[in-house]
Amino acid sequence: QVQLVESGGGVVQPGRSLRLSCAASGFTFSNFSIHWVRQAPGKGLEWVAVISYDGNNKYYADSVKGRFTISRDNSKNTLYLQMNSLRAEDTAMYYCANGAYWGQGTLVTVSS
Amino acid sequence: SYELTQPPSVSVSPGQTARITCSGDALAKKYAYWYQQKSGQAPVLVIYEDSKRPSEIPERFSGSSSGTLATLTISGAQVEDEADYYCYSTDSSGTHWVFGGGTKLTVL
């Protein structure tokens, strides 16, 4: 069955970096655009970034542009999100999703 | 920046029809997607491309779109349908995605 499994979350100080991963299985990963979506505690869903099936096109929400980088390795069926210059407002559950399927999320907490 | 507007809450009695709307200028040309999120769980896709339903989603869920308004309809809502519902779509360029603010559906 389709599985998306996020990892790499944790507690990090403001200004530091973190890299999230999303391991995919059960579908042809290289055929799909993949999104990162986050949800701050008690808040709604917020789109973060999307990468095309081949990695050639990447788009970001204004709130993370210039600080976050989305990438993928189709040979490893894995999606990444490099997060730099983290802020308190980046604290959220981070999900990867191919539209129809979502992972269970990985929690990022930015706090001193 | 582009926005999708949803009502914060909708309340119906069991067996009634619940309608949740989503308004956005680009919806006239872009598809709407609808997600259901129950407390503590990841979102689940209930409608894609305005009106298509994944096979595992009950038939009481349907979607429609007209002009700049997309609508999720739950015909004969059940207590287990209580959740937050989010619409999802892109701006007119198709490069930036956005969620609506979410609608809390109460069935009681």
Structure summary:
The complex is a heterodimer of chains A (112) and B (108). Chain A is mostly beta strands and 112 residues long.
Mean of all residue-level pLDDT scores of chain B: 97
C-alpha termini separation of chain B: 36 Å
The main β sheet of chain A shows up as: 6 strands, mixed
Name the chain pair with the biggest interface and residue counts per chain.
A-B, 19 and 21 residues
Please state roughly what percent of the residues of chain B sit in beta strands, choosing from under 5%, 5-15%, 15-25%, 25-35%, 35-45% or over 45%. 35-45%
Question: Which outline of chain B best applies?
Answer: globular
Q: What would you note in describing this structure?
A:
The complex is a heterodimer of chains A (112) and B (108). By secondary structure, chain A is mainly β. Chain A is 0% helix and 49% strand. In chain A, strands 2-10-9-4-5-6 form a six-stranded mixed sheet, with no helix packed on it. A four-stranded antiparallel sheet of chain A has the order 1-3-8-7, with no helix packed on it. The mean pLDDT of chain A is 97. Chain B contains no helices and nine strands. The mean pLDDT of chain B is 97. Classes of the chains: A mainly beta (112), B mainly beta (108). The interface between A and B is medium-sized, with 19 and 21 residues.
Descriptive key words:
heterodimer; A: 112 residues; six-stranded mixed β-sheet; 10 strands; B: six-stranded mixed β-sheet; three-stranded antiparallel β-sheet
Q: Mind sketching the topology for me?
A:
The complex is a heterodimer of chains A (112) and B (108).
Chain A: E1 3-7, E2 10-12, E3 18-25, E4 34-39, E5 45-51, E6 58-60, E7 68-73, E8 78-83, E9 92-97, E10 106-110
Parallel strand pairs in A: 2-10
Antiparallel strand pairs in A: 1-3, 3-8, 4-5, 4-9, 5-6, 7-8, 9-10
Chain B: E1 9-12, E2 18-23, E3 33-37, E4 44-47, E5 61-66, E6 69-74, E7 83-90, E8 97-99, E9 103-107
